[in-house]
Amino acid sequence: MALKRYSKIEPKIFLFFMGPYTVLINMLLFGNCVFGSASAFFVRLGTSILYFAVIYSVFGMAAMLVKRRFPGDHELFRRIGILLPLFCVMNMLTVQGVYLLYEKLSLGACTVRREMEWWVTAYGCLASAILTFINEAALGWEKWKNAMTETNRLQSAYQKSRLMSLKRQLHPHFLFNCFNTLSSLIQEDEQDAERFLDELTKVYRYLLKGEDEQLVSLSEELKFIDSYLYLVKTRFGAALRVAIDVDPQEWTKKIAPMSLLIVLENIIYRNVFSKTQPLQIDIRTERAVGGALPSLPSLLVANTLQPKPVTGDGFDQEEALDDLVSKYKLLGRPEVEIHESPSRRSVIIPLIELNELLL
User: Fold this and answer.
1) Which residue from 20, 242, 277, 295 puts its CA 20 to 30 A from 2's CA?
2) What is the band of 7 on the pLDDT scale with cuts at 50, 70, 90?
């Protein structure tokens, strides 16, 4: 089983640090006598490196235990505050161990200097402190690089989401179906045709506006969805049932534009439904309570599952939903949640408080 490391470059730090450390500690232990014989010098150096490599692994396990207990970036000073005194105590034991080791082995003519115990211990504590700060810096650098990589990935996903939104705006199937419906209405009822055209205009006006904004109010999104649902319900009639129950107190909350459109298109295009087997969609607000934390507002969109075989309609609806999840990650907001059972699917979209935008 591979040993867990404090950071990815910890082995390199160890190799770079161990040589100078062991040479200096041998000078403190033996004085100038350590350079009296080249062969004895290298024997002591090899013995020291082997001894301190074992000790370093023990220090590493202690550091990992503390890191596991306090892993957060905000707990950096707590980790250091625990590790530094802990390592000093461990260094006292380590120094006693190295004295006993050399006294037992009696390598060469040199004898260890007991009067230097506290100097050797102080040096060990200083070296441990330096290593601790270096390892913490390496860990912070790795986290920063990973965060930048994730941010770039999410930005790419966000740009892709914008492109897919543009494709949805110009999607020929949607336009074709709308124009077919409009043509039928013109022949049957001019007033209905006029309203249908008015709602279609509202939909495309919002789509064009939404491309330039990161967040919109929930009330704006719902007005847009009313227009969109009017178009699709005119086409599908009683085969599509939509119930909206949104608390007016949540209307001022913010949401990523076209979030509901993505979810509703996913539902409509990926389910089969008819007058005898209607598709039920419920849209409502709710608040999830997180223990001692204040309740978090969200918008829940649930529907009955009546899946149909996937047909090539020009874009992947599931991919669009994945892009919505990525968009919320990029915004640094709570994640979009998707829950599915054999008969029902729910998508929970977090609503953003106005005061969050000021932070």
Assistant:
1) 20
2) low
